[in-house]
Design brief:
By secondary structure, the chain is mainly alpha-helical. The protein has helices at residues 23-49, 53-67, 74-99, 103-126, 131-148, 151-158; strands spanning 8-9, 21-22. 72% of the residues lie in helices and 2% in strands.
Length: 163
């Protein structure tokens, strides 16, 4: 077996490029599934159902300051958190699919990342005060797009052998 200095790790006995495991998939799938998926989901559900209402009121005040909004009602906060639950579930499903080497998960991750970037720009148009946060919100989706559109990564997902 020849020495491999790339981002891909060969499986023992496998010489085919499409059978190598990209290390980036483990990292990005882990971030999607664990951090942005499971952890975020548990945190948001805790805020909604476990933490006292005074905690949610403090979150509303922080959001009001960040968004330069006059006031954010508890109903609006719950709608915002509900949307975040949906986003967390999407990240969780995406991460699990990437771990399982599903081509649909790779494509879904790329499309979802484009949508995320579009929504970040649109939210900045609606709330110009968000412009300082928009740049940070674009970094991770951009990384996902660049990584999962890489030809070697595409080959890894497309040449999946049935188990």
């Amino acid at each position: 077996m020849e020495k491999n200095n790339s981002n891909f790790q060969e499986d023992p006995g496998q010489n085919n490029l499409s059978q190598r495991k990209p290390k980036g998939i483990l990292i990005l799938a882990g971030l999607n599934a664990v951090l942005f998926g499971l952890f975020s989901l548990l945190l948001i559900l805790s805020i909604l159902f476990i933490f006292p209402s005074s905690f949610r009121e403090n979150i509303s005040k922080i959001l009001e300051k960040e968004l330069a909004a006059e006031s954010i009602s508890q109903k609006q906060l719950k709608a915002f958190l509900g949307t975040q639950v949906l986003v967390s579930v999407i990240f969780l499903i995406s991460g699990i699919g990437l771990f399982l080497r599903k081509e649909w998960a790779r494509k879904f991750t790329v499309y979802f990342s484009f949508m995320f970037i579009l929504l970040a720009f649109l939210s900045t148009l609606g709330q110009p005060g968000l412009i300082k946060n928009t740049f940070l919100n674009l970094i991770y989706p951009a990384i996902l797009i660049f990584y999962f559109t890489n030809k070697k990564v595409q080959v890894y997902f497309k040449d999946r052998k049935p188990v």
